[in-house]
Every structure is written in structure tokens, then in C-alpha cells.
Prior knowledge:
Elements: H1 2-11, H2 14-33, H3 36-43, H4 51-72, H5 75-100, H6 105-131, H7 143-168, E1 187-191, E2 205-209, E3 212-219, E4 222-227, E5 241-243, E6 246-248, E7 255-257, E8 263-265, E9 274-279, E10 285-289
Antiparallel strand pairs: 1-2, 1-10, 2-3, 3-4, 4-9, 5-6, 6-7, 7-8, 9-10
Helix pairs in contact: 2-6, 3-5, 4-5, 4-7, 5-6, 6-7
Amino acid sequence: MLARWLIRVMDAQGGWTKPLGDLVHRFLNWFFGRLPWLRDLLIGRWLGHPLHAVLTDVPIGILFMVIVFDVLGTSSAAAWALAVGILAMVGAALAGFADYADTDGKARERATLHSTLMVVALAGYSLSLLLRFPVDASQPASAAAVWTSIVSFLILSAGAYVGGDVVYVLGNMVSRHAFRGAGTKWIALEPAEVVDGAIPEGKPIRAKLGINQLVLVRQGETILALHDTCAHAGGPLSEGTIVGATIQCPWHASRYELANGHLVSGPSVYDQPAYEVRAKDSGGWEARRKVA
């Protein structure tokens, strides 16, 4: 099967993608860690959707038209499309690097392969653009310029395939709560830690709610609850840190409002499921998911 063969080919690149990915990741994590506003802009926190996924369609469509314009012999249109496509690739790459700064494990190896292919394609397209100058609208582009753009598109397509694998197979930048229902039934809540019959105050603790794990924080008589699994990459919020009215994930430092689960800062771009908690007449507590 073709898919299995392609997976073997991608996995075979681990000898260089892992060390290169670890090196690049350290730099990008350091860089974006010092510019959180830029990271939040590029990951799409303001949009509520990963920005890289939005931008990647633009250069692929434009750069395909370069081939069409070359076939039609409209060299001027092909050169303009190529220039715009290169700029679009750079924009998509910046958003992708922001995602990469908080990508771990196998997804980072695949993302390294993906970004390497895209950089090679970008270099090929830049060379093709240089080979077209000076642009003469009355003459078709040189064979070297045309074939360079065709080869670059094949590399671009291979990079896009690997990028799709990062998202659709490995689930990178996919909400960890995409398939979680929002039932309204009250269910018995079982805190992992109780002191003198009460949930400790001001300290995140784990609790079991049916098949779900929650993080609880008591503030006076109010018990605030979010799902324990961070929407970004699955980090345990119960091991996180309380920062003002928010809780910070211990893995990648995403912050969520304890009162409603609203995202405050990335690298997550998704809100966190929030829950209502109340005391039971018979003792103990029960909870249900809040309706958005």
C-alpha cells in the first residue's frame, strides 16, 4: 500500500530530522518564548484557529498557476504569480515556525522534514524567478526557469503531504477536546485530594468525573473546574501553575481563565472545557460541563 511505503520513507529520515529538529526547536522556543505577543499573533490565537493552516493554501494555489501561465506562454503573468507565491510561502513559513516552537516528539521530526522540503521548494522558486529576469511579455520564459518551477512544485507537494501527516495522523495543533461531548447531566465528582473533608484552597488538584479527568481550584466557597487535559498538546493542567485568575499548562505555558476556560495566551488557540461544581446534599460534590 502506498501510504505504508510513504510512512517508511518518512520514518527513515529520523537520522537527520531528529537532531536538526531538536536544534532548531531550541532556538525557536527561546525566540518565541521572549516574544509571546508575536507567537500568539503567528499561531492564530486572535483567530481561534491555527494560522499556518489558513495560510498554506494560498501559495500552493498561486504557485500552481505559475505552471498554467507558463504552459499558456504568458511569461509576465507567470513571473508575477511566482513573486506573489514566494511572498505567500514566507508568510506561511513564519506561522509554521511559531507552531514548530511548541511541537514535540514524532510530530517534530515530521515537521522538520516538512519545513526542510518547503525551504528547498522556496529556494527553487527563488531561482526560477531569477532565471526569468528580465521579463519579456512577448517571449515565453526559458526552459530552465519553467522546469525549475515544475520541480519546485513537486517538492512543494511532497512537503504539503508531510505537513498533512503532521496534522491528520499525529494530531499536532488539533484540539484535544474535538470529540468530547457537552452533556448536561450532573455526575459524582471524586477529588484526588481532600483535607478535613474539603478541597484544598488555591491549589490545583486532579479529580475524576466519570471517564473525564478535571483540574479543580477552590477559591473560598467557589470550586472552579476545567478539563485536566490541555487542549493544545494534552498537558496535565493539574500539574500547572495558578497565575492570577488563570491556570498555566506545565508543558507549553498556555493559560486559561479558571472561571470559564477561555484562552488567555498560547501556544494553544482553543478554549478549555469548563465545568460547574456543586456540593451534594448527601456529602461530596458533583459536576457537569458548562454549556458554551
